[in-house]
Specification:
Shape: globular
Strand content: over 45%
Order of helices and strands: EEEEEEEEEEEEEEEE
Low-confidence stretches: none
Strand order of the largest sheet: 1-2-3-4
Helix content: under 10%
Length: 189
């Protein structure tokens, strides 16, 4: 899994999946390792919010079943929300820079993008993503914009929270055929 190892913003802990368990390992004292269990399938993606207050994990499951997303409360080391919407696999997760929203992209059996409100645990907006999305990233200074990259895809989504809709603009890549597997947005967007 690409992007599975995170150095927590507290500068003390590593966050990574091991099968269906999320590990939070203290680098200074390995005896202070936490094992967060809640998934019933392998974890496929991990996202840590900017301040580290939240951690989100997505999983894969068997064909015909829905895959869970879990939002963890980092301070309490407990499950905060469980979202069950995407079919078979969650490809990527990303928090908005203000930690208000979480974006999730489903795998090839789902091809949907969903925006969740972190505090309430409610789905705010969603849309079909015609090509398989491998990665996503919110803008740093604007939580109404999200980039999704994938198979021959680089698309900017604008989120209208009032109308609960997503509007897409494809990036013109010309004859360039790329499979985007990771994204990083410049701090100035």
């Amino acid at each position: 899994m690409q992007g599975g190892l995170h150095f927590h913003p507290d500068n003390k802990n590593l966050v990574y999946p091991l099968g269906s368990t999320l590990i939070i390992r203290n680098m200074l004292d390995p005896n202070q390792t936490h094992f967060l269990r809640g998934h019933n399938g392998p974890i496929t993606c991990v996202a840590v919010s900017k301040t580290g207050r939240y951690i989100a994990t997505g999983q894969s499951t068997h064909m015909g079943f829905k895959a869970d997303i879990i939002v963890w409360d980092y301070a309490k080391k407990r499950l905060m929300h469980r979202f069950t919407l995407h079919k078979v696999r969650v490809m990527c997760l990303n928090f908005s820079s203000d930690e208000t929203y979480l974006a999730s992209v489903g795998g090839q059996d789902d091809n949907n993008i969903t925006i969740w409100e972190v505090e309430s645990g409610k789905a705010i907006a969603g849309n079909s993503c015609t090509n398989l999305g491998h990665c996503c990233a919110f803008y740093n200074n604007d939580n109404t914009k999200l980039i999704v990259g994938g198979k021959y895809l680089l698309r900017v989504w604008e989120i209208d929270y009032n109308l609960r809709k997503l509007h897409a603009v494809d990036c013109a890549l010309g004859q360039v055929k790329r499979v985007t597997t990771c994204l990083m947005v410049d701090e100035n967007d």
